[in-house]
Amino acid sequence: MTSTPMSLLLVEDSLADARYAMEALPKSQYVLTHASSLAQAMEQIGNLKFNLVLLDLSLPDSQGLDTFREIHNALPATPIIILTGLDDEDISLQAVKLGAQDYILKREMSEFLLSRAIKYAFERKHFDENAKRLAILEQHEEFMATLTHDLKNPLIGANRILELMAESALGVVSDQQSDILLQMRDSNKLLLSMIQNLIEVYRFERDVNDVQIEQISLLTVMENCINEIAPIAKNREITVKTDFSANIRNVLADRTALRRVVQNLLDNALKFTPNGGNIILSACNENGNVSFAVQDTGPGIPADEQPRLFERYSQGRVGRKYTPGTGLGLYLCKKLVDAHSGNIVCSSEEGTGTRFTVKLPAA
C-alpha cells in the first residue's frame, strides 16, 4: 500500500452502516465512494477505478452470492471484503471460497478491523505468491504469543526467590550482595513488563473489542502502579511525586487496560529519569473527562522523533541509548486509549524532560 489514498467502493444499502464505515476509515488513507444498490455500484464501476470493494450481499436489487458474482465479474482483479450480518455469515464464507478475500461481521466493525482487513485483503489479492509467507507470519505471531506467555511464570518465580535471598530469608547475605540481588530483580521486572506488552498487544489485536467498560477509580489504579515501581525508584533515588486535584471523578474504562496504560507510562518515565531525578503524576477533572499525566526529568525527545512515538516497534535514539525495549509500550498505550474514546499526547523538549497526558471519559 502506498501513501496515495486508496479508492474504495462501499456497496451498502444501510445508511447507518455505510456512515459508520465512512467515518471509521481515515480520510487521509482512503477515498470512499458509496453505492446503495447493485445498479449504482455497477454505474460507479463503469466511471471510476477502485482498489478494493466493501460489499454487502443483501441489496434491494440483488441477494446473496449473485451480488458477489456480479461485482467479482465486473472487477476480477480487485479485492472484495464482505460486510455481513449474523444471518448471512454462511453465505459470506461461501463468497470467500469463491474468491472474496475476507468478511467482517457488521456488529464487530471498527476502524482497526476494517484497516486490518483491507491491508491483508490487498496483499492476498495482489500477491498470491506470498500466501505462504503470510501464513508463516501468522504462525510466527502465534508462536511469539505462546512463548512470551510461557516466559512469564519462571521470571515471576525467580523474582520471588531473589527477594527472599535479598531479605536473608534463605541465608545471611551482605548489604552489597542484597543490592546486587535487588538489581537483578529490577532487571527481571523490566523484562516482565516487555513480555506483558507483547502479550497484550497480541491479545488486543486479536480481540480488539474485548474491553469491559466500568466505573473505575483512576486514583486507586495510579496509587497501585506507584506502589509497584516504588522499590525500583527507591534503589535509584528517584522521587515519585503526586499532584491530584480534589474530587477526581471515576473514569469509564477497562480496569486491566487502564492499569497497563498507567504502568507503561510509569515504566517509560523510569527508563529515562536519571538517578536522583523526579517523576510527577497529576490528575484533574476536565469538562466531561478526567485527565492524568506522567512527567519525567529525563533527556527529552527530539522533535523529529515525536511524530513516530506511538508507532509499533518505534524506538528513538534516546530510547535505544538508555534502556532496551520492544518499542511496543507507547503503541499499546495509544491503542488502548483510542479503544476508550480517549486521547493521549506527548509534550517534550530536549534537556527538560517529557510529559504524557491522557484524557478519558468521566463516569
Q: What name does CATH use for the topology of the largest domain?
A: Heat Shock Protein 90
Indicate how many domains the architecture comprises. Answer: 3
- Give the oligomeric state of the chains in this entry, treating copies of one chain as homo and distinct chains as hetero: single chain
**Helix amount:** 40-55%
| General shape | elongated
User: Mean pLDDT score, rounded?
Assistant: 85
Report strand %: 15-25%
CATH superfamily of the largest domain: Histidine kinase-like ATPase, C-terminal domain
Name the CATH architecture of the largest domain.
2-Layer Sandwich
Number of helices: 11
CATH class wording of the largest domain: Alpha Beta
Strand order of the largest sheet: 2-1-3-4-5
Low-confidence stretches: none
For the termini, the CA-CA separation is 40 Å
- Give me the count of strands: 12
Major sheet description: 5 strands, parallel
Helix-strand pattern: EHEHEHEHEHHHEHEEHEEHHEE
